[in-house]
Amino acid sequence: DEGRDVDAAGAALASSLGELQATVIFVSNEVGLGIVPENKMARAFRDHAGRLHQAIAAEAAVVYFVAAGLPLKMKG
């Protein structure tokens, strides 16, 4: 996706959530809790994913973080 504005696409996705008439469930890996990746592409992915997670969480009514099968309610 070189040259694509990934942050703009993520922002458009997050902003569209309020218009939906259905329950939407996102499941994603948390990639920001580990070591900083060595290569540029992996760092960019980690950063884009983190910003997307934040944007979706801002729009979501309920947010859970699950580790080792244990849910932690973070919002809602």
Task: Describe the protein.
- The chain is α+β, with helices and mostly antiparallel strands and 76 residues long.
- Helices cover 41% and strands 14% of the residues.
- The chain contains two helices and two strands; from the N terminus they run ααββ.
- The protein has a two-stranded antiparallel sheet with strand order 1-2.
- A hairpin with a 2-residue loop joins β1 and β2 (70-75).
- It is flat and about 40 Å long.
Ordered list of secondary-structure elements with their pairings:
Blueprint: H1 6-16, H2 40-59, E1 63-67, E2 70-75
Antiparallel strand pairs: 1-2
Helix pairs in contact: 1-2
List keywords for this structure.
76 residues; alpha+beta; two-stranded antiparallel ribbon; 2 helices; 2 strands; flat
Largest sheet: 2 strands, antiparallel
Q: What best-fitting shape do the alpha-carbon axes yield?
A: flat
Order of helices and strands: HHEE
First-last Cα distance: 34 Å
Mean pLDDT: 92
Structural class estimated from helices and strands: alpha+beta
How much β-strand is present in the residues?
Answer: 5-15%
Give Rg in angstroms: 14 Å
Can you give me a brief rundown of this structure?
This protein is an alpha+beta fold. Helices cover 41% and strands 14% of the residues. The protein has 2 helices and 2 strands; from the N terminus they run H-H-E-E.
